[in-house]
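Rotation project, supervised by the postdoc (A.L.). Task for the rotation student: set up a whole-complex structure prediction and record inputs and outputs verbatim in this book. Inputs entered:
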Amino acid sequence: MSVFLSLSKLYVKSFYNLPGKKAPGSKATGKEIGKLVGVAALVVLVAGNLGYLFVVMNLNLYQGLAMVGMQGLLLLNAAVMATMLTLVVGFMTSLSTYYLNDMELQLLSMPIRPRALFGAKFVAVYVTEAALSMFFMVATMVVFGIKERPHPLFYAWGTLAGLLLPLPALAASYLIQIPLLTFARFLRNKKTIMIVGGVIGILFGLGLNIYFQRMMPPVADPAARAATFAGPGSAVSAMGRGYPPAMLAWRAMASPASASGLVAALMLLVACAAGPALVVLLLSGAYARSLVGFNEAHIRKLSKDGAEAFIARRLRRRRPFPTMVKREFDMMNREPMYLLNGPFIVVMLPLIMGIMYAVQKDALLADPDMAGVRALIDGGMGAALAGLVGAFMGSSTSIACTAVSRDAKALPFIKSLPIGPGAYLLAKLGHALIFGAVGSVVGVGLISLFLRLGAADALAGLAASLALSSLLNLAGLWLDTANPRLEWDNPIAAMKQNPNAVIMMLGAMGLLGGAGYLAFVWSMSAGEFALWFGLAPAAAFAALLAPFPRFGERRLAAMEG
Amino acid sequence: MIELSGITKTYAKSAVKAVDDLSVSVRDGEIFGFLGPNGAGKTTTIKALTGVLRPDAGSARIDGIDVAADPIAAKRRIGYVTDNPELFARLKAAEYLNFVGDVYGVSSADRRARTSEYATLFGIKDALGASIGSFSYGMKQKLLVTASLLHDPQNWVLDEPMVGLDPKAAFALKEIMRARAAAGKAVFFSTHVMEVAEKMCDRLAIVNKGRIVFTGTLAELKAMQGADGSLESLFLELVDDSAEESA
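Outputs recorded:
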């Protein structure tokens, strides 16, 4: 196998935490098979949900555009969306994997050409990009294919576009990052990169959200909505005009069997391949050089007198439990991967909600149907909505459902300390509940503000939110204690790639969706909602909490790190 | 005093016994070396005695307290230096010391005095305000040693403590071990550096493939093997012999 292929394989396995091949002759245990089936089912569920979302979005858009005979614009939108999504995700992924770990230094000491080194990294990042882009293109092809029955070449050009469109976006990401990391030494630090990358990713994400909101303005008339979407000032038109690959993909798919379609497809191939080729050709050397000295640590030293004063000032006794809770905060908030995918959600979700509100406020308030909705809100649904949003925010930080997995490396040492397993796990629960309370207050507060709820409704929502989020956080901790992810090289595996986080996210959606449905069907008043969805989860929380320390003790004893 | 009696452990993911019917006792006032090749079962034994692992059979007693029956009381009497100093990289050194001090219930005055003493000895005093993640491997090891002594434990358990230490720090560590033994405390450490074991240990045990193949003093080992070589050559002979017997 060539060095390039071998390296690409290594990077892909390392990025995605793929398990190695089983030793010949060794058979999978029942637990391993069960786990595999569970993870596969989870992947199908998540992919199905996302696919459904994309198909419905495309279907709505198609129906609006078809009314004004502009359904072909659906394909331009798909190309624009695939480009934007892969640009956002590609920029984030390429930045966070720029220097994977100290394995990179080891690779630098080997006789590997910079082009192979950088090319392999490019390929590994591209795998995600291609999957994401194809996901969106396939959703569009399904809708357009069923409705319009295009020529079979449509699917060929659509697939080609899906695979090619991420390439320039990824090349552009590296075109920015390599010079930046070559010249800005302070950025050559994993922690700094994660923070900077996280902020950029959030800004990109918010921008994408604005695009989504503006793409489908909530205008009652579908034809007017389509005209707004397809107008010369629209985001789709602007992107289509300003970004030739999206335009070429559109042309190829819009007239697939024609010569112009073929020419557009070939031009797309050239245009998309040129970017990566140039970046690999010109910047590989700079990339390899920028890896040297990455993660260099500088210790800020104290003076002799300063050290004594420091010891006198900073070393002081506290009670063990608050100390353990503080450790949970420090270990999570100081690891950018954990912070950005965990507690930061409490900041991120309100921002997204704020954008949705700001963009759609006028249209929402002007909608005649809102008069009926107002009555529902005042009749108790406002409190329910506030409570459910608050509970979702309070339980969406993944603090509890990844708590044991995040501690995998430290578990043997923790177990040697004179602290009971129950106290250790309760410190983790305390950490999650504090963020649960913050998320609840923020979520309920925002919804109360948006919907102009009264104090009684807001308090009813808050009571239910606190109870529901506490229950979900405890359930998440049970899950991660029962089945933690203990073997990983990269913290991404403990957090983002942890099945427990996905299970809890889907579980929370199911529970909260069900609660909302019941509140609606039974026309609950604010008081009734607070009573049922405050007391029942609180009782379930108490019932789960009582046996938890003993369960945790047994589980921790069984973890043989 | 540390007493291990009939410790047996097979990991869930393995069919082989990592430790098999292992018994050892470390008296107060003695430095006890635990020697063995890689994978012999040294770390598994230490994990069993520090309460990290629950053995399948046998018991570990610390100053007469059964680790399984009263783990908290037993652990309070141990200072443990793990073989993996790559822990808590996101904490600052002082925060880590405070965490350990709080968990072991060390008073503010004691932790300040001991931190100052050991951090000075190991040359990390000026780095106490820095993040552990910025430390070299050796500095992390020095910090672990300092933290393990914060509560002045009666029993000091060190897993491969010399790894990563510079000569000055290694010397300081050996001095502390001697001083603690002289003060009537038990010191139990694992190593595969024969020179260290030869110079430091009052008694030693050699473990291979999970079983003890020798326990006693260096003189007793020489007498048993009928040779007057270095500990290294005696160790190699013994380990080879036991490998041949089991094969």
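Student's summary: Chain A has two domains: 3-17+32-291, 322-558.
Supervisor addendum: DSSP finds 25 helices and no strands in chain A.
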